[in-house]
Inverse folding.
């Protein structure tokens, strides 16, 4: 799989609203189930397949995401 | 503009506003304010200003608020009922520390409380100026703009129907009040992106990044300080006549005071020991002048065209030095606009004579 | 690129920027918001809408000419937190203040940020008059169908059947009347040059709405008349639902009545 992008997640800013999960077109974000940040909110984790489309950063009400696009897509082992 | 011209009060006030630098006006027609709006609609564009025919008094004061926030000398007005509609905004404009001139072309004098106590919510004060005639209105209207920008506070000019519709020969000469006060607080967009973008708000001007955010307790406390400084810093004005040895002192404001003054002069000429005090600033009230006049008097009487409002401030100023009596009352023709049958020197005379005789 | 294991799941480490060469395409907090942390509810659509508006102001390069006039609602939290000049108005009164600003300083770019309670309840006459006059301002309404800040009560835009704090059995036409579709009303006015309704319930709508906002500002810059963008925002708290359900609730309940699209363009 080619990895086109990645995100930095500021988990302390997250309020666990889950909007990013459904917003992500390749569906590579999942919420923690019991891990929480210091405020008690669950937060998102990133799986393989980010395309740097910015859906997450644009939909997030709490400015949790930084989105990066790799200059050259990364080759991932299957 | 400096040759004497026969002008109706409304027009003279409009000219005075423009001479003072007013470049934004918004209003809604209502008797007897309408002609001021008409005049500003005609004259302001001629000097590059903007006059808005607002769809309501509420929108008029809102537009004036917006213009004032850009540092543009702005004014609005109405009659008492229209000002009633503006009260929330006037209270908040004061909290936002904005200069604004507000005209009340009143019907009679029942808006004294509205003007001096403020009809809005919370603690705030407006400077209130009450001209006796068209010539003084030309002066005081210009002074209003100067006071408003000096103290960053609304200033109310208390006129009336009689003032609006009386024609006098006046010269509208721009008055020089010295250097312009600082307007670095005003908005024009230019501090955007600087990290120090300006904010004009009735909630205060602290920004979130200063780790303070809005702090209303702090803001209201600093507004109270500013109000106290303004009250102490504005010289209370009054016209006093024959008060040094007066037995009876008559207190009156606005256009009816001209009739009181004339009656007092007549009675003086006949030997009666009567004097008058005419407050010109209704806020700050010229308490010292009233108190001094009351010293040694056997009665202080108040004429006003209402059920008794300024008399409260007179009583406070007199503070027991002499009894205070009311010789005023609501005097209207059937229109209710304040064309008072009382505006008659002989009527005032007989009221004062009644007190002198008792 | 590093991996780590969280809750037994192998995930990509996301607490540091990538070490491989990469370009930052979207940053945390928009440049024109001073402090990113706010106390609006989880899942609130208003910060999403604010982000789009501020990004447009930056992209159009009008930061040094813009004055934002704020109404009163949850979004007022942003009024002292922006790196553009702001004038704070009273509930409903932003359009008249914005009119005064723009008429006094025609070279500025003036926008209002108001909620549905602010604009369609308290201030309905102000926005209608500003639109009719063709004021060259851009009014933006964040519409979530409730008075959010005071606890979630019905407004003039609440849809029939919508449960709110004071319509717990759902808004009833006979009892509470019908919602006002403000964008549709404004589009009827000749002074309104650009009228559009967007939403922020999914990334696609966010992008479409951002284009509407851009067109609205361009309308103002061209001096073509009044421009208006209504933005449907999620309010899971006011709607008594889970945050994850809010985007669908917006689509199924609000957007069926207040339909998304450009209603009028110059």
């Amino acid at each position: 799989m080619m990895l086109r992008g990645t995100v930095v997640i500021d988990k302390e800013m997250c309020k666990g609203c889950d909007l990013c999960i459904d917003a992500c077109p390749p569906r590579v974000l999942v919420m923690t189930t019991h891990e929480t940040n210091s405020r008690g909110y669950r937060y998102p984790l990133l799986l393989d397949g980010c395309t740097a489309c910015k859906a997450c950063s644009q939909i997030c009400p709490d400015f949790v995401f930084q989105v990066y696009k790799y200059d050259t897509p990364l080759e991932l082992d299957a | 503009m400096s040759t004497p011209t026969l002008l109706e009060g409304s027009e003279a006030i409009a000219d005075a506003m423009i001479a003072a630098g007013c470049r934004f006006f918004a209003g809604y027609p209502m008797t007897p304010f309408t002609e001021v709006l008409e005049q500003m609609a005609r004259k302001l564009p001629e000097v590059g200003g903007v006059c808005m025919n607002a769809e309501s008094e509420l929108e008029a004061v809102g537009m004036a608020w917006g213009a004032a926030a850009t540092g543009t000398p702005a004014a609005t007005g109405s009659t008492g009922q229209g000002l009633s509609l503006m009260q929330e905004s006037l209270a908040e404009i004061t909290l936002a520390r904005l200069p604004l001139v507000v005209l009340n072309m009143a019907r009679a004098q029942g808006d004294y409380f509205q003007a001096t106590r403020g009809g809005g919510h919370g603690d705030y004060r407006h400077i209130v100026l009450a001209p006796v005639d068209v010539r003084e209105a030309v002066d005081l209207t210009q002074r209003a703009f100067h006071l408003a920008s000096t103290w960053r506070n609304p200033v109310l000019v208390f006129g009336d129907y009689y003032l609006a519709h009386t024609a006098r020969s006046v010269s509208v000469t721009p008055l020089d009040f010295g250097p312009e006060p600082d307007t670095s607080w005003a908005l024009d967009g230019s501090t955007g992106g600087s990290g120090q973008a300006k904010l004009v708000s009735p909630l205060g001007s602290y920004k979130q990044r200063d780790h303070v955010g809005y702090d209303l307790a702090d803001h209201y406390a600093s507004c109270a300080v500013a109000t106290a400084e303004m009250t102490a810093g504005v010289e209370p004005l009054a016209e006093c006549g024959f008060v040094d040895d007066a037995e009876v002192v008559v207190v009156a404001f606005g256009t009816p005071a001209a009739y009181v003054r004339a009656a007092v002069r007549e009675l003086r000429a006949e030997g009666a020991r009567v004097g008058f005090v005419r407050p010109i600033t209704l806020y700050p009230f010229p308490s010292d002048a009233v108190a001094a006049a009351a010293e040694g008097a056997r009665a202080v009487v108040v004429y006003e065209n209402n059920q008794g409002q300024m008399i409260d401030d007179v009583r406070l100023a007199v503070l027991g030095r002499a009894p205070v009596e009311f010789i005023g009352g609501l005097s209207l023709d059937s229109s209710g606009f304040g064309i008072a049958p009382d505006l008659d020197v002989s009527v005032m005379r007989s009221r004062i004579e009644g007190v002198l005789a008792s | 690129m590093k991996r780590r294991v969280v809750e037994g799941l192998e995930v990509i480490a996301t607490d540091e920027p990538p070490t491989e060469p990469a370009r930052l395409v979207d940053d945390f907090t928009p440049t024109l918001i001073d402090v990113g942390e706010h106390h609006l509810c989880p899942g609130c659509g208003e910060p999403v809408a604010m982000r789009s508006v501020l990004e447009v102001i930056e992209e159009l390069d009008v930061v040094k000419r813009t004055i934002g006039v704020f109404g009163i609602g949850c979004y007022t939290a942003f009024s002292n937190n922006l790196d553009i000049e702001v004038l704070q108005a009273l509930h409903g009164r932003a359009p008249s203040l914005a009119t005064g600003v723009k008429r006094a300083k025609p070279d500025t770019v003036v926008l209002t940020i108001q909620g549905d309670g602010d604009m369609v309840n308290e201030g309905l006459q102000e926005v209608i008059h500003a639109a009719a006059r063709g004021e060259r301002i851009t009014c933006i309404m964040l519409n979530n169908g409730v008075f959010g800040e005071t606890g979630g009560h019905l407004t003039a835009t609440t849809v029939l059947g919508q449960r709110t704090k004071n319509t717990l059995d759902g808004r009833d036409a006979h009892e509470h009347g019908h919602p006002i579709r403000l964008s549709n009303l404004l589009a009827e006015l000749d002074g309104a040059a650009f009228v559009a309704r967007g939403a922020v319930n999914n990334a696609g709508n966010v992008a479409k709405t951002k284009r509407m906002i851009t067109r609205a500002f361009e309308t103002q810059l061209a001096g073509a008349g009044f421009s208006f963008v209504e933005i449907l925002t999620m309010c899971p708290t006011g709607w008594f639902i889970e945050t994850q359900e809010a985007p669908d609730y917006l689509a199924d309940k609000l957007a069926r009545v207040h339909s998304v699209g450009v209603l009028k363009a110059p």
Observations:
- The longest strand of chain C covers residues 192-199.
